[in-house]
Amino acid sequence: MKITVPPEIERALTVQARKRGTTAELIALDSLRRRFVRAHVRRRHDEGEGNGRQTLADFLEGYVGVLHSSERVPGGARMSEESGNKFAQALIDKRRKGRL
User: Fold this and answer.
1) Is there a single domain that holds both residue 78 and residue 46?
2) 14: enclosing H helix or E strand
């Protein structure tokens, strides 16, 4: 298959290729793979069928992300601190209200 891209996309690909030290074709192929090929299928192709061990994080690559609470709450929400104690207190409160 051959794909003809408009001049503005060709320029953008060329700029990115120069920045990354690669070719515009490889940038385009990588972008298309990330967009249209599922992550675990890509990895199998890249590593060879059955080569290497994969973690859950590898399998979920492209589907799961991370954000820092400081992106939403100034200074961060600190939601992971004292989580066990917070959970226990929530259960106690529910029990007092007759909801547990």
Assistant:
1) no
2) helix 7-20
| Same domain for 41 and 2 | yes
Domain that holds residue 78: 66-100
Shared domain for 26 and 73, answered yes or no, is no
pLDDT tens string 19-74:
989 899 999 988 888 888 765 555 555 555 444 557 777 777 777 777 777 777 88
Q: How far apart are CA 4 and CA 53, in angstroms?
A: 38
Residue whose C-alpha is closest to residue 38's, from 60, 11, 67: 60
Report the 10 Å Cβ neighbour count for 27.
19
Q: For 60-77, what is each residue's pLDDT tens digit?
A: 777 777 777 777 788 888
- CB atoms near residue 79 (< 10 Å): 10
DSSP string, 19-52: HHTS-HHHHHHHHHHHHHS-HHHHHHHHH-TT-S
Predicted model pTM? 0.39
